[in-house]
Amino acid sequence: KQEVTQIPAALSVPEGENLVLNCSFTDSAIYNLQWFRQDPGKGLTSLLLIQSSQREQTSGRLNASLDKSSGRSTLYIAASQPGDSATYLCAVALYSSASKIIFGSGTRLSIRP
Amino acid sequence: DAGVIQSPRHEVTEMGQEVTLRCKPISGHNSLFWYRQTMMRGLELLIYFNNNVPIDDSGMPEDRFSAKMPNASFSTLKIQPSEPRDSAVYFCASSLALAVFGNTIYFGEGSWLTVV
């Protein structure tokens, strides 16, 4: 059974710092991995999607990497800003059932001004 | 596009009552998902449809839960009878095609359900 884990559950850093969020998954048979952002009281917004054949994806100050063999992904946020404060979730699409997407429990990020 | 639209946004109901949550996916999307989010269990997939057909409902907690998609632009999630442990945020999401094609999933803003 695929399990997706995100550590730490919460993280607080001062504005301007670069930071890394971690995601691990137990079964490497995935189609892709996505990183989402969730603001309080809102739905999830997709940030980056990495196909299983890719190693990384970049969007602005965000860079996501994928190491499928080790079951790990990281989300790198450069020059963090208070507006980056949110919960970040990673999710994997299972190879066995392409539309079954399993989410991690998320990392709650707080950027201190 | 207006995005995925869910209603109601908030509902408080008494135990034993029927609850119906509604979702309008993004026009042209042919995959629709219902998720439930709680502090204890995180985000759980309840059921998903492809081309209006339920593909996998193994996440539906029990027979009290049912979901329908009568057409490409509307889906419902029904709980009957509701129980306090059903209190959660229920999200509907849609995508252009199956996740294998790398299509982004778009989430609605959720229906916040409280059963007292």
**Helix percent band of chain A:** under 10%
Helical stretch tally of chain B: 0
Strand content of chain A: over 45%
Shape of chain B: globular
Strand tally of chain A is: 11
Low-confidence stretches of chain A: none
Helicity of chain B, in percent?
A: under 10%
Oligomeric status: heterodimer
Runs of chain B in which pLDDT lies below 50 for 5 or more consecutive residues are: none
Going by helix content, strand content and strand pairing, the class of chain B is mainly beta
- Helix count of chain A, per DSSP? 0
Q: In sequence order, what are the helices and strands of chain B, one letter per element?
A: EEEEEEEEEEE
Over all CA atoms, what is the radius of gyration of chain A? 13 Å
**Mean of residue pLDDT of chain A?**
92
Keywords:
heterodimer; A: 113 residues; mainly beta; 6-stranded mixed β-sheet; 5-stranded antiparallel β-sheet; globular; B: 116 residues; 7-stranded mixed β-sheet; 4-stranded antiparallel β-sheet; 53% strand
Give a structural overview:
The complex is a heterodimer of chains A (113) and B (116). Chain A contains no helices and eleven strands. With 113 residues, chain A is an all-beta fold. In chain A, strands 2, 4, 5, 9, 10 and 11 form a six-stranded mixed β-sheet that branches. The N and C termini of chain A lie far apart (41 Å). Chain B contains no helices and eleven strands. The mean pLDDT of chain B is 92. Chain B is mainly β. In chain B, strands 2, 4, 5, 6, 9, 10 and 11 form a seven-stranded mixed β-sheet that branches. Chain B has a four-stranded antiparallel β-sheet with strand order 1-3-8-7, with no helix packed on it. In chain B, strand 7 and strand 8 form a beta hairpin. Chain B is globular and about 40 Å long.
Outline:
The complex is a heterodimer of chains A (113) and B (116). Chain A is mainly beta and 113 residues long. In chain A, 0% of the residues lie in helices and 58% in strands.
